[in-house]
Amino acid sequence: MLLGSIEAGGTKFVCAVGNKDYQVQDKVIFPTTTPEETIGKCIDWFDKYRDELTAIGIASFGPIEIRQNDPKYGFITNTPKQGWVDTDFVGPFKKHFDLPIAWTTDVNGSAYGEYVLATLFNQRVHSLIYYTIGTGVGAGEVVDGRFIGEMGHPEVGHIKVKRHPDDLDFAGICPFHGDCLEGLVAGPTFQARLGISGREVPLTNHVWDIMAYYVAQAALDSTLMFRPDKIVFGGGVVSEQFLKKVRREFKKLLNNYVDVGDVEKYITMPLAKGNGSATIGNFALALKELQE
Ligand code: ZN
After folding, report:
1. How far is the CA of 292 from the centre of ligand 1 (A)?
2. How far is the CA of 186 from the centre of ligand 1 (A)?
3. pLDDT in tens, 205-251
4. For residue 209, what pLDDT is reported?
5. Which residues, at least 6 apart from 216, have a Cβ–Cβ distance to it below 8 Å?
6. 25 alpha carbon to ligand 1 midpoint, in Å?
7. pLDDT digits 0-9 by tens, 48-94
């Protein structure tokens, strides 16, 4: 018996098959081109495992339609990604494989993976928020195995934050809001602020303090609104060194108002290594879909 996982990102698709213990048996990466070509490649690849495949979990970039009773359930909707507006994603898989398919956002897939791993690591985690800070910013929220978001999935990347006094002349890069969280801390902001990529910016650069101030506000707001057991930060911009700065700012902002326990355990890097959270989450969601 095999479970399938598709992590659909704006630049690449990661397809994998794994067993019920969430161990990857095979994996492939396709660049994101047109919907027909990319989805077609995925279907062809999974076809090799047709006899053993029992369910598939798909975690996609968005926005996506998640309401089961909506005619566009399983679609990527009004995405800024060119060529992908109104793309039926789940439909072609349903048609080809006739298997249970779990469908959620990329960050929800990762959040679920971290939720499952926390349990496997014997952490007492009932609720968890997973942020990704990479090309874009987003977050998924799991409470007792269910996602928050009924009318649609959360869009935490676009929350408003208080500006850092040393950053007031930066307009932000979000095409919708300018200086929302994503507009201030997503990977491409390094290029916009400094003219170089984030990889070339040493942690001693003040920009990292400014970003930590914004990310700490996101952690604070998440804490005050949801009181989760844990907040996980993943994505290309995040490192343990950066999170040290975030924790320091977070403690200042929280000012001991509520107890979050040991902040080192509360604000953490992903348990899954090598950006593997979503694949594990997708396997687990596929298994859940199968059992339901
Ligand atoms: Zn925005």
Report:
1. 36
2. 10
3. 999 999 999 999 999 999 999 999 999 999 999 999 999 999 999 99
4. 98
5. 246, 247, 248, 249, 250, 252, 253
6. 38
7. 999 999 999 999 998 999 999 999 999 999 888 889 999 999 999 99
Q: How many Å lie between the centroid of ligand 1 and the Cα of residue 6? A: 26
Q: In what order do the strands lie in the sheet with 53-60?
A: 24-31, 12-18, 2-8, 53-60, 101-105
Residue 136 CA to ligand 1 centre (angstroms): 10
Question: What is the rounded CA–CA span in Å between residue 10 and residue 135?
Answer: 9
Å from CA of 137 to ligand 1 middle: 9
> What would the two tokens of residue 61 be?
């970039």
